Amino acid sequence: MANSTSADDVASPTSLTIAMPDDPLKRGVHKPILFECAWEVANKVGGIYTVIKTKVPVTVQTYGDRYTLIGPLIYKTASMEVEAQEPTDPALVATLESMRAQGVKCLYGRWLIEGAPRVLLFDTGSQYHRLDEWKGDLWNLAGIPSPPNDHETNETIVFGYLVAWFLGEVRSASTSYSFNPCLPLPSILHTKLIQL
């Protein structure tokens, strides 16, 4: 039966799986790509930073260079936390070029911790001019209000939308995908980046 589907052919609902355009071996459930998002990636604020650092060596051992952490770009500590590099993955190169062309500032490289995972840090300030639009989206799509002068809320909204934008661009730059991202879910569902 040439057209039958086995359990091995079905993507895991908890991983991001992408086949790169020039990759002769399609990535699937056996070689998933994992993007992990957290506010404390290369940004020591509290206990989550320690939790992330503690689990990174095991995650890198499992995923290798298919694992990338995504967080905010904090300029005062970035040079001590991250060794800047340019990505070599064609989909990431295309995605970051596209986003940078639209004014997104970001830093890609290796986090200088055990395991040296890849990181992508977004400068939320580079896209604050979109804040009202994105707040409007949250209200119109999901009825989620946001206070006008709450810095923490504003940072979270801009960061969330940058991550959603990034995931959409990665998907567009790839030939196939299967993933289950979670933020910001209302925007992701509205743009049909995924369907639940």
List the helices and strands and how they pair.
Layout: E1 17-19, E2 34-37, H1 47-63, E3 67-72, H2 75-81, E4 82-84, H3 90-101, E5 106-111, E6 118-122, H4 131-142, H5 151-173, E7 176-178, H6 185-190
Parallel strand pairs: 2-3, 3-6
Antiparallel strand pairs: 1-7, 4-5, 5-6
3D structure, described in words:
- The protein has 6 helices and 7 strands, in the order ββαβαβαββααβα.
- With 196 residues, the chain is an alpha/beta fold.
- It has a single domain (7-190), classed as Rossmann fold, CATH 3.40.50.2000.
- The strands form 2 sheets. The chain has a 5-stranded mixed sheet. A two-stranded antiparallel ribbon has the order 1-7.
How many helices? Answer: 6
CATH architecture verdict: 3-Layer(aba) Sandwich
Strand order of the largest sheet: 2-3-6-5-4
Oligomerization category of the chains in this entry: single chain
Structural class of the helix and strand makeup? alpha/beta
* Structural Rg: 17 Å
Helix content: 25-40%
First-last Cα distance: 30 Å
Percent of residues in beta strands? Answer: 15-25%
Given this structure, which CATH class is correct?
Answer: Alpha Beta
Number of DSSP-assigned strands: 7
Q: Quote the CATH topology.
A: Rossmann fold
Number of domains: 1
Low-confidence stretches: 1-27, 176-184
CATH superfamily: Glycogen Phosphorylase B
